[in-house]
Amino acid sequence: EPEVTQTPSHQVTQMGQEVILRCVPISNHLYFYWYRQILGQKVEFLVSFYNNEISEKSEIFDDQFSVERPDGSNFTLKIRSTKLEDSAMYFCASSEILGDNSPLHFGNGTRLTVT
Amino acid sequence: GNSVTQMEGPVTLSEEAFLTINCTYTATGYPSLFWYVQYPGEGLQLLLKATKADDKGSNKGFEATYRKETTSFHLEKGSVQVSDSAVYFCALSLSGGYQKVTFGTGTKLQVIP
After folding, report:
1. Which among B34, B43, B103 is the nearest to A42, CB-wise?
2. B53 in Cβ contact with B65 (< 8 Å)
3. Alpha carbon A105 to chain centroid distance?
4. Any bridge partners for residue A20, and if so which?
5. Closest of A42, A43, A26 to residue A34, by C-alpha
6. Taking a C-beta distance cutoff of 8 angstroms, is the pair B91, B33 a contact?
7. Dmax of chain B from CA atoms?
8. Would you say A78 and A19 are in contact if contact means Cβ atoms under 8 Å apart?
9. Which residue in A4, A48, A99 is closest to B43 by CB distance?
10. What tens digit of pLDDT does each residue of B30-87 get?
11. Model confidence over A57-94: pLDDT tens digits?
């Protein structure tokens, strides 16, 4: 069964550094998402992306965050200047279409640790 | 705003025990409700869903019924197995959006032989 793949599985970075988290969504999917989970807290929506532009974003997704689909397969999340509170598990997801009959398919996540 | 509250874990059960994980929600409008599962080292997977009141979602022996009157979507399984050990997330989304899903905090289930 096709999978969403994320790399790396664990990223350690120093505060203030830029970090790029990478995702390869399922090939025929059209909608892409990033979620994150701070340890012990809820999984939170960050952003959705369709047709090469952001469809919706949460209040968490400020100017320090950006997303890009640089080619036909990758979907990236960039954090320009990481803060300690950015430490979390980041999940990429994709879906084929909109609506309740098209569930999200999640990757295994990237654990980001900011020191 | 929209929110999901689920029982805190971890929940530890013996094999073949009955499982209930409670979930309640608050939403504006008429949400769809989901249970996602995360097995160790893996991503979130959709376990089951219900899109309207009184619907029952079921999969792999798990069931949950959409109760509008109590705003609940409790997860149940009659006889758990060691392989069910995972973290279970209750979630909702509102129709018409880009599947912006609101998750609960997750409940870790450990089943011991």
Report:
1. B103
2. no
3. 12
4. A78
5. A43
6. yes
7. 44
8. yes
9. A4
10. 888 999 999 987 888 889 999 889 999 999 999 999 999 999 999 999 999 999 999 9
11. 999 999 999 999 988 789 999 999 999 999 999 999 99
Q: Which tokens belong to B15?
A: 């094999």
Closest to A49 in 3D by CA, of A73, A66, A32: A32
Q: Do A98 and B42 touch (CB under 8 A)?
A: no
DSSP state of A39: T
Report how far residue A6's alpha carbon sits from residue A74's, in angstroms, rounded to the nearest whole number. 10
For residue B95, which residues of chain A lie inside 8 Å, CB to CB?
A: 99-100
Of the candidates B82, B60, B73, B79, the residue with the CA atom closest to the CA atom of residue B102: B73
Residue among A50, A56, A99 minimizing CB distance to B100: A56
CA distance A36 to B56: 29
**Could you give the CA distance from residue A47 to residue B12 in angstroms, rounded to a whole number?**
35
Q: Which DSSP letter does residue A22 get?
A: E
Backbone φ and ψ of A84, nearest 5°: -55, -35
- Secondary structure letter of residue A30 according to DSSP: -
Cβ-based contacts of A107 with chain B (< 8 Å)? 43
